[in-house]
UniProtKB/TrEMBL annotation:
Statement: the UniProt record of this protein carries the keyword ATP-binding: no
DUF5110 domain mapped to chain residues: 691-759
InterPro entries attached to this UniProt entry: DUF5110 (IPR033403), Gal_mutarotase_sf_dom (IPR011013), GH (IPR017853), Glyco_hydro_31_AS (IPR030458), Glyco_hydro_31_C (IPR048395), Glyco_hydro_31_N_dom (IPR025887), Glyco_hydro_31_TIM (IPR000322), Glyco_hydro_b (IPR013780)
Protein name: DUF4968 domain-containing protein
Amino acid sequence: MILNTELEHKGNIFPNKIVSFKKDVDKIYFYTENNVVLQVTVLRDSVLRFRFTTVGSFSRDFSYAISQSASRGYNLLEINETTESYEIITSKIICVISKRDLKTVLYDAVDKTLICQDELGFHWEESYELGGDIVKMSKHSEISESFYGLGDKPCQNNLKGKRFENWVTDSYAFGKDTDPIYKAIPFYIGLHSKKSYGIFFDNTFKTYFDFCQERRSVTSFWAMGGEMNYYFIYGPEMNDVIANYTDLTGRPKHLPPLWALGYHQCKWSYFPEAKVKEVTNKFRELKIPCDAIYLDIDYMEGFRCFTWNKEHFPNPKQMVADLAEDGFKTIVIIDPGIKIDPDYWVFNEGLENKYFCKRADGPYVKGKVWPGECYFPDFTNPKVREWWAGLFKELIEEIGVKGVWNDMNEPAVMDVPGKSFPDDVRHNYDGSNCSHRKAHNVYGMQMARATYHGLKKFSYPKRPFVITRAAYSGTQRYTSTWTGDNVATWEHLQIANAQAQRMSLSGFSFVGSDIGGFAEQPNGELYARWIQLGVFHPFCRTHSSGDHGDQEPYAFGTNITDIVRKFIEIRYQLLPYLYTAFWKYIEEGTPIIKSLVVYDQEDQQTYFRNDEFIYGDSILVCPIVEPNSKGRRMYFPKGRWYNFFDNELIEGGEECWVEADIDTLPIYVKEGAIIPKYPIQQYVGEIEITELKLDVYYKEGKESSMVYEDSQDGYDYMKGRYSIRNFNLIGKEDTLVIQQFKSGKFTTPYEFIELNIIGLPFEKGIVEVDKEIIDYSAIQSNIVRARKDFTEIRIFNKYCEIDLKSEKIN
């Protein structure tokens, strides 16, 4: 007879004392009396992995987030034992592990200052109903500590005082502080004492993060299953933390084609074909640059993926070719839901091969999406990913589509609680069968991965272009992203600004928002202000819900059209600058856009700044996010900054009022910067680049800049066929010196570089280009023209006496 039907809730359980330890190359194991094992892996001097098990042994070590090419190796590894603790010492970090309870304290190995320490440390709670453990970690928050990251959370940059949930969720018309939304990126950066560290909690179950909300001096994170498995990344610079995190989780596998960094136009939906061409023709007629046009779900036959509506698009191959002739690349949407239809070849293939997700007791999971009732491929199965990749052959190789946009891949399911799959759905998980509780957060990532591999195969020898709405850490290896179904409000303009900054410092730089708002309808002022922000986001696309009205750049009257055109033209002029920033992101992990705190963590005034950001390395942008504004107050980081439009010089380190009527935006360039520009094009490749322009901003002192160029598409750059121009600027009272160091085997199509010298504090006289003297004294302009491979340019004060033979200034 069963007398007690109540479940025993044991509450939190903690490790007890260490009874033994062992070292296995770069892994150190600590065993406790109550069967807890801590595995510490030294990946690099500044990166440690902490992995706990409560059952004495570890399960298969597998992660979708960690890149196979992540760097490994360290300069120093020592292990010391004292009566109270073990010490793991690298050249960057000292990790002290308590023998009594496995609590850890981490110090800077150089100056011995405290970086991070456990509060309760690792603990867990047995989950009888679900099986496994709820795993938990709590750490002390140091005095005045700030926190940043976690991906697309729609709130202010500094996360202190807030709690968050990571569960990828279709969140239509989300608002400020809505949580969770479309992405799960369980990575954050802590900053105190002007030093920063990062923690990446690689657990795909539903996770939570508390940044001193429940208890003012404690930050904690926990998961509803799986392992306590986290990586500790030490800076002390935030840029170094982000670079090491993106090294760990990966960076984009290839540069995007340059056209993907142009302006894109999208709507739900452009159809039939005549409407698509009406829109594209209007862009060319009004000379508004645009590189891509999007087809939403209405291009399909009954919303069936990989089909075409023959009534609306009778000859898609010819239409795509016609658009390409006019410079437009066609992007199409593909969702995960496959319509249950015995006359539909994709459905039949999936059914025959058992590629669809099943419930725990056997039947396929069924859900309503746009086509009606659907089955859903299990993208965690490598065979399914291979099949899915192959489905793109016709779209890409035969019809000529240039990019694919993955939507609804959280996965989103209509008219059910939770808006997604039930928890009991089963997944292959690359051979480690599991429930949806574990696979949910990576479902969209694995769909994007399969899409990427399909496009890479069938776009060859051109580069693939993929967009995803849902993501987990590491998704940046495969795809770009946008911030989801936002709303045409001023508040959402502010949210878009914060989200793009947060995504970038969370390792995902190729990001943008639906310019103008997806839901509802912006007025002309809001749309213009959103364009002014959006052209400084790496992914730049207008997208809207069709039932709310027109939202093309020309839809708001002549005045707004002229303003929008002006800023899209600025984007196209700055394409070589953005492309260079993208190259640095891939090579070095440097975020393409940086919150001011990332740019200068020494300045505590930056810790709570939300609006201003640095675009690339040298351009300061501050969007206007309120209606009827004629200007605003903005903070200038330390240093001196030139106004992008009138070259006025501003001293940084303080907040100032700046004028910014509807036709302008606060944009400033760091002194000493050299900004590359291309001529305005209506689309990438429209004209041959016959001259590279460099805006050279004078500085008394030294500064370095660079320009990266290649053929703008294809893979030749991976064989060394690229061009890198490194510039050193050396400014003195009476001279300006510009040195160039060229590398790479790519031959640029232009022969000359035009340098526009800005802020020169003296009147230009003689100019020396590679020892050759050119007398510019009679020319008023501060333009200098030189062959592209010059090594040194010297510009002298017109009123200095120069001994040309000895090249000395008297």
